[in-house]
Write a structure and sequence with these properties.
homotetramer, alpha+beta, 5-stranded antiparallel beta sheet, Chorismate synthase, AroC fold, 21% strand
């Protein structure tokens, strides 16, 4: 129990259900003196807001955030920051019949088993709306990272079989693509594919890639709180994520040491750098000063309009057609969630790393 | 800092360096009344012991475990169980020169940056010997799982390009294969491949697959301590692991909802089961009562005898030949480590799940 | 940082400032199936509400609680329960001048040093209003304890020099006394004393005693999470508490082993009991099945109307008269806060104790 | 379960029983670069070693510590430091009969109830020998505090009815007194008292006072991890401690606001200081830059040779005479344990405080 809190020094606690009164988060451990207001947070939330293109759920939520505590005169005070988003466009009636059966791919069955019953309206706590709290917290983490010139950028690498072509990629494209793809050609191909799958009442999955630049060297805590280990937990805790890999990832399993090792080199500026980055910016679970690169696999949306076989609580085999308003693919709106969970993890681990050397402690206190 | 402790209710703390006096672990939260002695633990440790075939390091360590606390008359008492393995066959001299340069693929560089210096002998804390503590703790976790009829089994799925063929697989083969492969044909092919790569002074990676059966439904704590999220952290915290996926994993990204959803069905015994298991035994981050399946990518051993380019502390580009006794591939000895970290995580989360319903609490106290 | 979360399995996170928009708490780890609604919580909150007698602050707050998540059809779902109380009767203007100086006995000075600045309105996060979140969470904990027939009762033992006389005490008196004293004679004497001190523009302290009955034997986790250790932290974390003692407490320091040891005896029902209870219901940090008894010392309200010497931020010695609406004594309203923190701690530790024996685990899972 | 770990960033895990093979501790989160070796640790351990005067147990243990990990060339490496002390002079036979009954004042009864059985030899995990791990860890914490010019000093304030007279006190006396009293006159009076009580086969309690100087302002994490709250937990977790108070403590309950508030003043050096220190160096749970002062009540040794009434496991009322070698009073040897737990807590909270301001973070990373 009590799995709604994440982080050690930078700690977030999310709460709220899809069709409850509101969704929110408490962020504790925010250092005092950071510029913060609702406009800053809202920009991040707007990136995951539904209804921004024909390719997302039709549920219409403005998702306006209210900061209830922890700031004073536009700055964080060091006290916990409580943020809330009221739910507005709930169609709970859509969900009345799902109370009686178990949707394939959803957690209806496991929640009933664990808790004895469940809040079935819109998936309750398992809804994608739960990520609102993650993104609001991630916004604060991202503002802290900015102060340290650390940048976290995620984007869609593939949808179904359509992959981005790196030679076509531009950062500025990400915001232009309804699928958060940096390659607009690929994005257009995806557009067609999604329309087809919507017609077929089916859904699509994809891969999100995330690149972190500007990380200081040595962040991560051996041996269990390695930076990649904690990032893996953070990202895997997002609903619908089924896998994660760093650097060459699963390809490393097929390569040899001489291929996969990244030789160190003294670069033109006299700095230590690496010739390649198969390691994905991590050596021994610590950031190595190069870009941290990871990819996460997102499964296709479980809620599809197509007829599906399943069982009901009475123990009967039945056929269902899921109503409600669902995204034909989760990937594009999950991009900012991946960035958020990465940012939260980075801040927490940057904080933890501050006591690695006795000199750092003396620097703060003397 | 303080990253050497893992788990909440079942908590392990590992310590020790490759060429220090000893390696050990303290396991806290072991319920009282469990049969435990050194023989039981030793069986698990023997599976990761070096020197068992020509394909592992020549370092000769018996790795005999001593239990120092927490048992009385052959049973756990509820007190922390401290276990120690003395290091014996240390060749520290092999490592004198690595003090001056950074080995590619190793954490030498990041440790120096983080801590200001490092115990360079045999990789110090980043050595594979650190996993001794994990396996000794995993042995206790596995004994607890046995009481609940839960089984954790890992094996090598592939080495380089050689994959097991599931139709050839038998559990009993795993112990017969020097690579822990359930398919002896594949194992023989690997044997040849490894001999070749050793000759080339190179190394190999591979994929470990793990299957957990017998799990009760509903284990996992939404939303951050999902069972897959915590397993991902546990497995990714093992050195050399570069990725993890559950069920259909990265393939899910290419499939559609109608392909990837596992339909529920009432089976011949009147129980709810699933027609397929693309979910890998987890729905919404909770165990769904079917087999939990995950795969982890293991990179090739970083220490290779082949000449490599790197830099030294003086800021010069140099060429090195790593001495010492190294495994040509990490995978086979990592199998038991993967099982151990999985078992530890399962026990911790089974314990956490016990308070999910008010009825459970009443059952214990009334 | 991140000190706003308390508890392991039953975990509360409080937020909010005296003169911010609202005060609240998220309670995570509440087992599913507990009857819960706003009326139940409100009853506990009403006990700490201001304005209930002439002896509390004149700030008029209804402190109406709203449950935002975690319940469905009147029962807890296992999801985090978010509760909020809007601030209404704020007179922020009263606090404008305290921005420039440091009030004796308050945390103005230490907050400025720690965070660089502070939300000075009404003490911000250090206000007594912060305890609203504790009481709302304590209400849930108390409902869980009721299911196990465990009772937590605190009351005022003394104010200034006036002590209750145990021979006059009745539980039913506590609610009748404006000072939560079980002895109405003592309560009347206190009434006079408080009037006198108010006239003198001064304030009073006192001692709260808490008695816990019905605890199962053996709750508490050696060696650091002893039940008394965790209760001590919980109670000491309440503002204005300056000391805590269990059983004979500081008197034990003056007694001998033969006086202080509580002999065991087989009672008339054939049960093991103790002849005396100098231990206060705890042996080795574990509950021993008898009443747990502790006392907490509450300092006099720091905000007094009387002229006081202090310093301002400009580095000058000044004299001040604190305006605002303050309680002449904190004790009576702190009684329910003490009960709440005790209840929260008991629930957390009852949950932790559930895995003490392997048999308990088998009982839940088989 | 799992109560053997204490601390967040500076984390200690103790293990071992009185009559097991050894006692030990793992200290994780020690910053790299601290001078550390066995001689340094041993000095602290020698202060709690038995057999140093006629007033302690006759058990003869050299308590020689061995560092097994985490140091390299005389400095901490950032890796966990494992320390072990082998038990040598065990007389387990002394304890055979206590297996069958419950000693008054001891945890025999509660351990049996919690765990189903217990390691009865010498009290097992509840023995005073458990504190060896605390002191070894405290030694490391104290070395860190030295780097920051923070000093922790505890001493015996009273034994039975005999109090120190502050006008007689000198720091240098503490080491001269067999009871760690800074007033040698009082110490001599205690000597007589202890001889008398030993003759009577009885035991004595007392009060330990601890003074911490040099603390930076603002250390402590509102609202649950206040510095006094965490110190209270740390000290109360030591066996035999029955109460703790800070500054004026329980006396504050009898005073008024005008008496108990400490006026701020600009001192002769232009610094902010306080005229008095009733607060005990803490305002709002944060260190205020003045001396932190607390007192802990220690109960008389439970093991007395005098005949006592109790019950056995067969459910009979019996009379017992406890054999074994016991201290007639615990206080003197507990002094260094109090210092140790205070030092560990201070280091942990100094580390946590480092992220209170965004400026601190920028200072470390830019």
């Amino acid at each position: 129990m009590a799995g709604s809190t994440y982080g050690n020094l930078f700690k977030i606690t999310t709460w709220g259900e899809s069709h409850g009164k509101a969704i929110g988060v408490v962020v504790d451990g925010v250092p005092a003196g950071l510029d913060l207001n609702e406009e800053i947070i809202q920009q991040y939330l707007n990136r995951r807001r539904p209804g921004q293109s024909e390719f997302t759920t039709e549920r219409n939520e403005s998702d306006s955030v209210e900061i209830l505590s922890g700031t004073f005169e536009g700055k964080s005070t060091g006290a916990p920051i409580s943020m809330i988003v009221r739910n507005k466009d709930q169609h709970s009636a859509d969900y009345d019949d799902i109370a009686t059966y178990y949707r394939p791919g959803h957690a209806d069955y496991t929640f009933d088993a664990k808790y004895g019953f469940r809040d079935y309206r819109g998936g309750g706590r398992t809804s994608g709306r739960e990520t609102i709290g993650r993104v609001a917290a991630g916004a604060i983490a991202s503002e802290i990272l900015k102060k340290l010139n650390i940048n976290v950028r995620a984007y869609t690498k593939s949808i179904g079989d359509i992959n981005i072509n790196y030679s076509n990629c531009q950062i500025s494209n990400i915001a232009k693509s309804p699928f958060s793809m940096p390659d607009l050609e690929a994005s257009e191909a995806v557009e067609e594919l999604v329309r087809l799958k919507k017609e077929e009442q089916d859904s699509l999955g994809g891969i999100i890639e995330c690149i972190i630049s500007g990380m200081p060297i040595g962040v991560g805590e051996p041996v269990f709180d390695k930076l990649d280990a904690n990032l893996a937990k953070a990202i895997m805790s997002i609903g619908a994520i089924k896998g994660i890999e760093f650097g060459s990832g699963f390809m490393a399993a097929k390569s040899t040491g001489s291929q996969n090792n990244d030789p160190f080199i003294i670069d033109e500026n006299g700095n230590i750098s690496k010739v390649t980055n198969n390691a994905g910016g991590l050596l021994g679970g610590l950031s190595d000063g190069t870009e941290i690169v990871f990819r996460a696999a997102v499964k296709p949306t479980s809620s599809i309009a197509m007829t599906q076989k399943t069982v009901n609580k009475a123990g009967e085999n039945i056929e269902i057609n899921i109503k409600g308003r669902h995204d034909p693919l989760i990937v594009p709106r999950a991009v900012v969630v991946v960035e958020s969970m990465a940012a939260i993890t980075l801040v927490d681990m940057l904080f933890m790393n501050m006591t690695s050397k006795i000199d750092n402690i003396v620097k703060i206190y003397k």
